[in-house]
Amino acid sequence: MVLEVKNLSKAFGEQKAVNNISFALQKGEIVGFLGPNGAGKSTTLKMITGYLPSDEGSVLFNGKAVHQKDIWARRMIGYLSEANPLYYDMYIKEYLLFVAEAHGIKNKLKRIEEVIELTGLQLEKNKKAGALSKGYKQRLGLAAAIIHDPELLILDEPTTGLDPNQIIEIRHLIKQLGASKTILFSSHIMQEVKALCSRVIIINRGSIAADDRLSNLLDDGSQSLEQLFQQLTAYPAV
Prior knowledge:
By secondary structure, the protein is α/β, with parallel strands linked by helices. The protein contains 9 helices and 10 strands.
C-alpha cells in the first residue's frame, strides 16, 4: 500500500475535527474523499502531508511511519491545496524554478519544461502567475505539485471556481496523472468524483461514513451518488 492512515485523530480545543479514522490507498488508485463543509476533509489532508500534527494515530508510506518533520515523506507527496497559494509576481518558469530548487531537483530546467508541457501551460509560460486565468492558475498549482515526481498526489477541491471548459481540461489532466500516481481527490462536485474516481471515502463529522468502490456503493442503482452522500451526511431533523 502506498498510504495507510491508522486511527488518526485531531481536535481543536473541545471540537473533535477528525475522530479515529483509518483507510489505505493502493498504488494507481484515484480515490474520492468526500464530505460536507466542516467534516474534517482538509484537516485530514493536512495531517497526511505533515502540515498539521495529529493528536493520535499514524500515517505510513509504503509501510514506514511518517513524522511531521520527515523530509523523505514530503518528497513522496504532491499537494494542491484548496487555496492554491502562488507568488503572483513571479513568472511561471521563475515560480517553478523556485519550487524545483526547494525540492533539490536535478536537471531543473529540463523538468520544468516537462511539467509545463504535461500541464498544458506552453501558451502561457511567459506570463506572470497573477496574469493567468483561474484554470491556468490551477494548472500551475498542479505543475508545482508534481514537479518532484511524487508517488502520492493530494488534490483539495482542484476544480472549485472553474468554468465547464476548464473543469473538463483539469479532469483530463488528473486522469493523465492517475496513470502513474496514486491520487486522493477531495471535491464537493459529484460529477467530478463519478468521472474520475474508482473508489470513494465519505467522511462526516470527523468519522468515516463509507469507504468502498463506487460501483459497489451504487450497485443496485436505487440511488445516485448525490443521494447516497445526502443520506450519509445529512444532519438529523430537529
